[in-house]
């Protein structure tokens, strides 16, 4: 057990105990400390009536076998009844959020597709067609119409397309400059995002820098 660092914190709550397990070190070190605390330090809470236990894993993701190991260690004390073993929900990546809806078809001139959330669209948006989303827009096809992502003001949204030659792009309240000013000779595999209050267009293979920033 690392000196000065507690990998297991046991807190009393209204309906029992919360076991908070450190997610920043090896699971084996956490389980060693858990065994130690249950065998010695916390004998005073391990006698008497049934105590409900909720195990919190932080952002650690564990297998079913590892959950069973945690259950076995805590279950050795007969009055501890495990109610849950849970990990925190991971934070969504920039420009993304689950789930992403998949739709397919073709948006023709005069047609508008509006969607609440993130959208993966399998098909083309023709000139005069419009696609509107509150989240990000990913088009596996040609975007030659108008696309507006972050419709409700989300300036972390992204617009990406296999073939990017829109009549207009909008993210939140920011409107792109015309495609002929982007500086690219071809129009394949590009994406748009907001950076420092301005819309930037880049090659799709650079999107990982945005997502991981």
Automatic annotation (TrEMBL):
Residues 8-85 form the Septum site-determining protein MinC N-terminal domain. Keywords: Cell cycle, Cell division, Septation. SUPFAM superfamilies: Cell-division inhibitor MinC, C-terminal domain. GO terms for biological process: cell morphogenesis; division septum assembly; regulation of cell septum assembly. Residues 103-201 form the Septum formation inhibitor MinC C-terminal domain. It holds the Pfam family MinC_N_1. It comes from the Bacteria. InterPro entries: CAP/MinC_C, MinC, MinC_C_sf, MinC_N_1, Septum_form_inhib_MinC_C. Interacts with MinD and FtsZ. Belongs to the MinC family. Cell division inhibitor that blocks the formation of polar Z ring septums. Rapidly oscillates between the poles of the cell to destabilize FtsZ filaments that have formed before they mature into polar Z rings. Prevents FtsZ polymerization. PANTHER family: SEPTUM SITE-DETERMINING PROTEIN MINC. This is Probable septum site-determining protein MinC. The lineage of its organism: Bacteria, Bacillati, Bacillota, Bacilli, Bacillales. The gene is minC.
């Amino acid at each position: 057990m690392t000196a000065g660092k507690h990998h297991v914190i046991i807190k009393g709550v209204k309906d029992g105990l919360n076991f908070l397990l450190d997610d920043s070190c090896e699971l084996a070190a956490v389980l060693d400390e858990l065994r130690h605390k249950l065998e010695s330090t916390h004998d005073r809470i391990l006698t008497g009536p049934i105590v409900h236990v909720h195990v919190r894993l932080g952002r650690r993701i564990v297998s079913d076998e590892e959950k069973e190991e945690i259950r076995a260690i805590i279950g050795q004390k007969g009055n501890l009844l495990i109610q849950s073993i849970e990990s925190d929900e991971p934070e969504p990546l920039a420009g993304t959020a689950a789930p992403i809806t998949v739709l397919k078809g073709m948006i023709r001139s005069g047609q508008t597709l509006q969607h609440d959330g993130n959208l993966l669209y399998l098909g083309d948006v023709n000139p005069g067609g419009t696609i509107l989303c509150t989240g990000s827009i990913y088009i596996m096809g040609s975007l030659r119409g108008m696309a507006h992502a972050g419709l409700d003001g989300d300036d972390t949204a992204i617009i990406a397309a296999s073939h990017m030659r829109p009549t207009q792009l909008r993210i939140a309240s920011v409107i792109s400059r015309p495609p002929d000013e982007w500086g690219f000779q071809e129009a394949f595999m590009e994406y748009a995002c907001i950076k420092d209050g301005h819309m930037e267009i880049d090659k799709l293979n650079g999107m990982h820098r945005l997502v991981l920033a």
